[in-house]
């Protein structure tokens, strides 16, 4: 006879804070980037197949949905990369004090936005120059 | 002599998957590899924007770029399937579904890596 066991508090109980947000977003961006490998395969297969196939991949990437996805993947990569570096730092035993943990969390969040802006500035500059 | 080992000693460090720290270590190795490789890939992707088909193909066909791209692809799919494996372990507890989704992730990762490597090979060797 299964009893109603007490559950530990779930997400909606806790006050949102940078520590948990960066952890959740790291996982979410990892899943998003794994899904993004479909485009990577399409790009390479299209480039190998010929000009028509490559033009189709380019058209998909240039469409509104493609641009939104590419922007999302750019930020996902920037965040996952920076937060991954943070995890590697933590693997060495550093950065666990609450103050530094919160600070590196904000560095990752702001840094990911800066990196995304830099990449898309390059995209827009190239488009303007082309 | 093996009788002197307690069950705790046998299982300690191996965990429920009996894999010990292998998953953790490989995830870190691929992560470290992906730091420079993904930055390089962003640079390549940005370079592709203003190139036409022949130019894009020539860029990827350069031996240095082809090798780095192959390394990037291998590291990406290896790292991705390790991460997705943990996500499934954490959230999917229906026995059949868990094994099916774990297998699907592994198979798709291998197929994605092979398809990418074949494409890079075709581009590099001009076939």
Task: Write a compact overview of the structure shown.
The complex is a heterodimer of chains A (130) and B (127). Chain A has 130 residues and is mainly α.
Protein model, in words:
The complex is a heterodimer of chains A (130) and B (127). Chain A has four helices and no strands. Chain A is mainly α and 130 residues long. Chain A has a single domain, classed as Up-down Bundle (3 helical TM bundles of succinate and fumarate reductases), CATH 1.20.1300. The longest helix of chain A is centred in the N-terminal third of the chain and has 32 residues, at 18-49. Chain B is an all-alpha fold and 127 residues long. Chain B has a single domain (25-125), classed as 3 helical TM bundles of succinate and fumarate reductases (Up-down Bundle). Helix content of chain B is 80%, strand content 0%. Chain B has helices at 7-11, 22-49, 53-61, 63-91, 95-125. The longest helix of chain B is centred in the last third of the chain and has 31 residues, at 95-125. Chain B is elongated, with a radius of gyration of 20 Å. Chain A binds chain B through residues 27, 30-31, 33-34, 37-38, 40-41, 44-45, 47-48, 51, 54-55, 74, 77, 81, 84-85, 87-88, 91, 119, 122-123, 126-127, 129-130, and chain B through 28, 31-32, 34-35, 38-39, 42, 46, 49-50, 53, 56-57, 60, 69, 73, 76-77, 80-81, 83-84, 87, 112, 115-116, 118-120, 122-123. Chain B: Pfam families: Sdh_cyt.
């Amino acid at each position: 006879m299964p009893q109603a066991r007490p559950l530990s508090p779930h997400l909606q109980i806790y006050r949102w804070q940078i520590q948990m947000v960066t952890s959740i977003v790291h996982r979410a961006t990892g899943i998003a980037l794994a899904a993004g490998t479909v485009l990577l395969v399409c790009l390479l297969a299209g480039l190998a197949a010929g000009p028509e196939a490559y033009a189709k991949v380019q058209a998909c990437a240039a469409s509104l949905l493609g641009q939104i996805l590419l922007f999302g993947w750019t930020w996902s990569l920037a965040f996952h990369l920076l937060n991954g570096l943070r995890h590697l730092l933590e693997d060495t035993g550093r950065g666990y004090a609450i103050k530094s943990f919160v600070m590196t969390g904000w560095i990752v969040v702001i840094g990911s936005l800066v990196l995304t802006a830099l990449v898309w500035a390059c995209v827009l500059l190239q488009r303007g120059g082309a | 002599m093996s009788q002197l080992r307690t069950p705790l000693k046998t299982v300690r460090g191996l965990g429920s998957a009996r894999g010990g720290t292998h998953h953790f270590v490989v995830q870190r190795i691929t992560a470290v590899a992906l730091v420079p490789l993904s930055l390089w890939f962003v640079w390549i992707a940005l370079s592709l924007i203003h190139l036409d088909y022949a130019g894009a193909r020539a860029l990827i066909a350069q031996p240095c770029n082809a090798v780095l791209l192959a390394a990037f692809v291998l590291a990406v799919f290896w790292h991705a399937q390790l991460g997705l494996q943990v996500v499934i372990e954490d959230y999917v507890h229906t026995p059949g579904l868990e094994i099916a989704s774990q297998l699907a992730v592994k198979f798709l990762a291998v197929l994605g890596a092979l398809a990418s490597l074949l494409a890079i090979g075709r581009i590099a060797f001009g076939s």
